[in-house]
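Course exercise 7: structure representation. Students receive a sequence record and must write out the corresponding structure in token form. The form below is the worked example handed out in class, using Conjugal transfer protein TrbF (227 residues). Read each field label carefully; the graders check that inputs and outputs are placed in the correct fields and that the protein name is recorded exactly as given.

STUDENT ID: A-19
EXERCISE PROTEIN: Conjugal transfer protein TrbF
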Amino acid sequence: MSFFKKKEQINQSINNPYLNAKTEWLERYGDYISRARNWQIVAILSIIVTIISVFYIGYIGSQNKLIPYVIEVDKLGNTANVGMVRNVDIKNPNVIKYSLNTFIYSWRSIWGNPEIQRKFIFDAYKYIEPGSKAFLFLNDSYAKANPFEQGTKQNVRIKVDSIVLQTSDTWQIQWRETTTNLAEEQISDIVYRGFFKVKQIIPTKEEDILKNPLGIFITDFNFAKIL
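STUDENT ANSWER:
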């Protein structure tokens, strides 16, 4: 008897339209929730991947891709050797001597041509660390003796006699300054000696590479006449 009741209840459940509708609604709603949740997971993963990609692209973009090279030429101007700047070591004395020689020549030379004189000034600042004692000293030097005004009356020719290492980062330089009037008649011939402290800062920006590819900077210096 109970068997027939159970069978009857099952048949009633199957034939009950309200229960069938509820069951169908739950199935459809559950499927909708499941699909929506899947899309949410996909969207979140996409956002995470996008954020990681943006940060990675920004990191790659911030890295320097310029590799500076130094080209060595012979007396005729032909290329003798090519090397990457990052392989140039400040311990190599020739690297320091070249930079210091160029600085002395650019700083102390006086020419009557304003364009040439302007280039000398720019070249001198290329070897000075911005904001350093050397930077302030050079500013004061040009303020006290305007090279453009001097160039209207006289010329000063520079000859570097010696560049000698004194300590791990300090060099002694001795040079001669021959001053003439505009007719090239000699006015004076004076020898100077100075001490220059240097350090190397490998350039990473294109602008800095074009200015000072070896990254040799003077941080402090002083000089005096040799009597």
